[in-house]
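User: Some background: our group keeps a shared notebook of sequences we're curious about, and every so often someone picks one and asks for a predicted structure to add to the entry. Today it's my turn. The entry only has the sequence so far, pasted here. Could you supply the structure so I can complete it?
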Amino acid sequence: MKWLRAARPARIARIAIAATVLCGVTFGILDVANPGAGLALRVVASWQLFPAVGRAIATGTLALGAAALLVLLLSLVFGRWYCAALCPLGTLQDLASLPRRNRRGFARPRTAMRVLALVLVLGAAAIGAAGLASWLDPWSLFGRFAAYDLQSVLRLAAREDLPGLVPSTVLASGAAVAAILAASFASGRWFCGNLCPVGSTLGLLNSLAPLRLRLDSGECIACGECASVCRASCVDSAAKRLDPSRCVYCLACLEVCPTGALYYGRPRPAPSAPASSRISRARFLAALGGGAAALMVALVPGRAFASKALGVRATGLGAPFPVLPPGARSLERFVGTCVACGACISVCPSRVLQPSLGQLGLIGLMAPRLDHGVSYCQYDCIACIDACPSGALGRMGLERKRLTKIGDATLVRDRCIVITNLTKCGACAECCPTGAVRMVAAGDGLPEPVFTSSICIGCGACHHACPVRPDRAISVSGLAVQALAEPPSTKLFDQGPSVPAAGGAGTAKGAVKDAFPF
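Assistant: Of course. Here's the predicted structure to add to the notebook entry:
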């Protein structure tokens, strides 16, 4: 049987590639200290379609990344191999479905659900809420699960601390993947065929591909073997047809078909698909087109509504504007392109990056932000920028990153122990990498902190080092639009003139008072 001899090695190759991709991305997220891990993560992320769309939005062009564009073009010609081998979440679903691999059957397509899910994702991305749309993106779902759940378990096993870990974050990311895996155990690749926007897109391309999996109704004997092993539940053996928009190319059907009715390639001379399949596909395209048209009509007012209703609320006392990672450039651009996959959080060496749970509004749910209560942004680190697959964190070199102003520090003099308790300190100045905070002798002989806003980059080292509890004397507020700080000057470290001591609480006057712009 020629088809059987060809199907088995093809299936083995598919499984090998899928396992390599799954292990590579998991290794890239979990073993962040290994230089090869970052490369593995970037390689796998390069062909993921959702981050590629984010990069296109970030750059303001329609051009996708080379790897992602190649995936689309190859899918249009050779079919939906991406879902078969290049999607980590898809491989995870295959593993979950193994216990019931021979207990499946045909399930009717849920066209309305597929169209609705795809339109909602496109609408969320169009109004600048990529984080909300990411809850149906397979890459983002898997990335968050690996970064927040698997990595936490691994670090607990190694008896490491988990600074900044929020149980709700672990629960949300784990519950989403657990629900998908539960559906996979019961019905195979149910998520891929009914909710996944990437799967719906590639399913349409697969329906148009000249080379794809097909079912020859003339050769089919309706034995049902193919339907019992189909992970996508897309083979209707009774009607002798295969739904190409849901087929995920697991190739299990090719091995069990006794007549070779299922095959990969161009159509055989005799018609292999009844009219009902073509009508179903046409209805799906029509519904999708109608949804896209409605989306375009609502796009402009929808974006304005989202920025007001779902965006960051005005901050009050004690609630500074959230600090965005370096390279975010602006809040609107960042939440509109970040797919909240957790890649940057997983590689952050200081753990200062934490998922947003309301700090960036609903529109930026689970997007990364800096939590200076946990740690601070390291001066000589661009790991998050290198790991970002969507372009939400713009590429830049280390020299430019050192000058990128992501926030501004503020000193509350009534909390500083140098001023209130006449106690020597200087922890903030010792940790400041740019010299934006330095100690200048006051009239009472105690050095007091002096702040230069123009060279502050908002890294948060001063806040993290401040010994005052519970509310620290120096904190950092983020910027809605990031800018470039001035390069530090050696003149800043010259000792300034002494300042007469103040009475009572030790409040500085004169030159030192003028040096504080807060």
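Suggested note for the entry: Residues 404-518 form a domain with the Alpha-Beta Plaits fold (CATH 3.30.70.20). The chain has two domains: 2-275, 404-518.
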